[in-house]
Specification:
19% strand; endopeptidase fold (from Nostoc punctiforme); six-stranded antiparallel sheet
Length: 203
Amino acid sequence: MKYLFCILFLMIIGCNKTKVESDNHSGSDNLEETKIPYKEFIASINKKSREEKKNYLFKFINYDVPNYWTSTPWSFNGTSREPQKGTIACGYFVTNTLTDFGFDINRTYLAQQASSIMIKKLCKDIKYFSKRQDLESYILSKEKNQVYIVGLDFHTGFITRENKDTYFIHSNYIKNKGVVKELTQNSKALNASKTFMIGSLNY
């Protein structure tokens, strides 16, 4: 009798586990289904008014761009206009995504210049730092939900802030990893730099 109860118990646990796994897969499938193709997503963004887009910019850079672009590989000559297709260099990652959002810029020219030129063209409140910690302290002293462009020794990308965490969103050249969103304190690319030029993205 004891063995019969054990068998029944194991059968119930197994059924529940199967149901949970099934529900989890269903949830994942639904998430995939709700992620519309990138071109359709960009078209929906550009239907917004200028004021709506201004209020949406942080969400676009901090959430939407990583959601679509993460793991798109880096290469020095990468110019991809669509995530998960081809490769993307760090400068083109910045200018292509901003162009997609609706910035009226010469994306090819700016992508090929030193990041200082791009920052001076697109940003305000430009600052210079020699330590990553000072860079983070500066960002944490500013208002939340701001988007910054940072220029390093030989690299560039976006920096955002969520509460007390600061993130580097960029096409990572290290091991050709490509697009990532990572904590600034953990970013090898950011920590390898000796200079930091940062500006608040102006839209």
